[in-house]
Amino acid sequence: MIEPRSEAIRQLRRSLVRIDAADGTIGSGFWIGPDLVLTCAHVAPRGQVEVVWQGNRLPGEVSEAAPAKAGHPDEPWPYPDLALITVPQATVHDCVWLSDQSIPIATPLFLLGHSSIYSADLKSHSANGSYAGPHGDDDELWRFTGDEIAPGMSGGPVLDLDRGAVCAVIKTSREVDSERGGLLVPLRGLRRLTEVNQAGLWRAHDRHHARGSWIGVRRGLATTRTNTLDAGEEAELLELMTHLESTPDLLSLYSDAVAPSTALPPEPINNPRQLCYQLADLLARPGQPHPLLRLVHRLTESERNPVQASLREWAVRVAGRRGEYEDLERWRRDLAGTRPREIERPSIIVQIKPTALDRHRFLLTVWVQEHGNRGMKVYCDDGQGRDLTGTRTLVAQLLRPLLKRLQGFAGVEFVVPEALFDEDFENLLVGRFSRLGRTNPVAIRDLERLSDDETWHSWHERWRRLHDGAGSAEWITCDDRSTSDEFDAGLRLRPEIALLGLAQQPRQFTEDALGVALYAGVPAAVWSRDTCPEHRSGEAADECSGDRFRQSVSRFLAISRLDELPDVIQQMRNAAAAGKEPSGANVVLLWDDPERRPEPDAPLIELA
Ligand SMILES: [Zn+2]
């Protein structure tokens, strides 16, 4: 068997062409669809060119090219520097698989083009290296680091060796006297072409690849990753999308697919293809079919046969393969009926309070609150208290029978002083194999705020918005420099802020953002108990651990409502424990319902 990366490179080589422009410029290009070549605009700016492919010289015409900067012919060609060439007399040829999605830093890349460096003839020439991040502040150009890029390679394809997709076009080697590598135009730049040409090229591409040899290549490369779709399912879906008869309302399809979340898509959606990719990035909610399956089901309602039958067949097959067939069926049945009534979740409230004399010894009180009743106090310490280790052991002992009695449905809230905010209560062992935070939603609450009425009004107000779906999240990134005063004033201007996100441990920040937010009545907060190693060592990269944590939380939240956060975090802890979401390993949730207050005067109930 051929190694999957070598196979991908072999496929790539079959689509490489040379461009001989009328003015003598020579560059590279590649087939992206039948009779269609992509290259750089600075290689083929306009008019007629000659496309040389496997010894044949074919006449081509530039159908669209990004224009040069007017009056500045010597400056680098402006973004996107891409050109499309139609080659009407082409014989049957291969085409590459394209992706206009972003890729992670350090993705291994293989660059292919023509070069005249080592011989008088133009020979194909390649470069190996990796993606080094965006060039400048926007994502318009990518940096390549690795082998030298030879003259003549401009316009050639850039293969992502992890995903088996051409993700960019070679633009230029760097200025002389700088390190090796060069600049690439990501295929996202295609979005700057006219809509007609974009639609035309993707239609040609997606129809060509429905049963192409790239599916096998991409399957071979995908074995180490978990993708929403298999390479074949993805190609089939994209091909089906090119046959839609109705003109879909993309935004309403998006919100139906992610309902009941009301979040807007992370970036604008201009066509069904982009819609598919944005949904493919999301995770399925537990017990629900994946958003993509929901989208395809909705499309079957507006389409006619045979597209309708093909879409339905695709959805059933993919749901079966993903183990979501029953979820899909149940969801389809429920669509007709009413939404299930929400049952109020019972709660176990565990209060851990330092003793008056020694802040390292704690008094424990436990209440159970069910069906909107007053809390029942089921355990209460008095006297000297005990140290933290002793307290944790006792909590685990007390929780086991309570959780059993509440049939695994209860949320568990730890009311603790700030000093214990980073204590990992979610790791208490409550079953033979299970940690508390994976079996039940676990959150902490602020002991100090519960005994202080000063913040009551804004706390209630923000909590109400959170539940009405009008609340929003505010994030503090690692390098946030705002002072406590600025942050406090900003929060008071925006009463809709109901969730504070911190990219790393609260105490890593010079200002006490968490303290400010709690005092301003923000009812919920989420942070990582980790420090951000990149920022600690001062070697902050383009994307640090803190950023990844934020993205991870946002991805989970995109498919949920803000008021489902305790469930979302439970899901994230499970994903982390399963090795699928490393950033979620040390997530902390503060979730403070102002209505739900432990009742200090409740009598102690002895449990049988
Ligand atoms: Zn950081």
From TrEMBL:
Q: Which domain of life is it from?
A: Bacteria
Which InterPro entries would you find in this protein's record? Peptidase_S1_PA, VMAP-M0, VMAP_C
Q: Which Gene3D superfamilies match?
A: 2.40.10.120
Provide the vWA-MoxR associated protein middle region domain boundaries: 234-333
Q: Which residues form a coiled coil?
A: none
Q: Which residues form the vWA-MoxR associated protein C-terminal domain?
A: 360-594
Protein name, entry field: Trypsin-like peptidase domain-containing protein
Native organism: Paractinoplanes toevensis
Per the UniProt record, the lineage of the source organism begins with:
Bacteria, Bacillati, Actinomycetota, Actinomycetes, Micromonosporales
